[in-house]
Specification:
The chain is α/β, with parallel strands linked by helices. The chain is 48% helix and 7% strand. The chain has a four-stranded mixed β-sheet, covered by helices on one side.
Length: 330
Amino acid sequence: MRKKPSGLSLLLLLLSWLLAGPARSELLWHWDDPFSAQEQRFLKRWLTRTAEALESWAGPFPFDVHVHLRRRDDASEPVPWANTWRAGEQSLFFYVDPTYAADEFYADWTAPHEFAHLLLPYLGRDNAWAAEGFASYLQYPLMVQLGVLDVHEAERRRSRKMDRALSALTDESRSLPENLSVLRKAGAYSTFYWAGAVYWERVEARLMDRSLSLRAVLRGFLDCCRNERYTLGELATRLDTVVDQLPPIEGPRSGVGVQPVLSAPEKSPAPNGQTAAPSRIFREELQRMNRDPGCPPRPEALSRPGLRLQGQATSEISTAAIRLPSSALR
């Protein structure tokens, strides 16, 4: 007859689990086409490092990620196509040409973009502007986290692409969500991707006004709520709820190291000493996106040079692009 564990044993088990921290998700590999052993080693290292950069930035996924590799020889770039699948298994599909050099894979934004998609649930085809805008908004900060872009270059690229997208929205009679089908039919994917990123930039600016960051909100969301299903409106409501449960960030406006505890919500104090009103940041900005002709303007505060990328202080990351050692690339 097996003995029941003692109270002390259970306590020690619990303490060891708490000290170990949250379990990291696993990458489960699917080689849908033939790849040599050397190619498999490199591709696994490249995507594992990308996943680690994202989880270091936002926290661990609450699920395993299925990674499918498909071969595309003689392609015009190392990753000519990729997509995310979030129905049932959380899956990424990468179509790659493994003959490209390692640094060309790391310099490609596709993998950070696709991994960023997994931070949010699938929002439906009609809300692609929000989902693709989200992944586009995060792809360059994740490349900074990965160590292949410096913060100033990341800011420059992201700002340039959003400005270009806004200037390309010539139909000012309808909102971006209303124009989505027209833009998609015209093949103007970059336009609605980066115009959609303006929503997340506007949200980030308002979070910074409350001494918070989008990074901290996403960490909290992954911790409590990612495995649920949402409409876009329901997601905005849930993210506002997470905002109300986060403590303000002390010091530089940085999400680094923030590990919000969502079981004991506390609202940030208002300037008059009273409890602040519940957040409506995500919902109000969503209403503006649905209502304003063309697209709401970029927030002026985040358009000025020298401000932090995604709430990350300059002192926390190198201002020079980090070249990965050759041993890490192949």
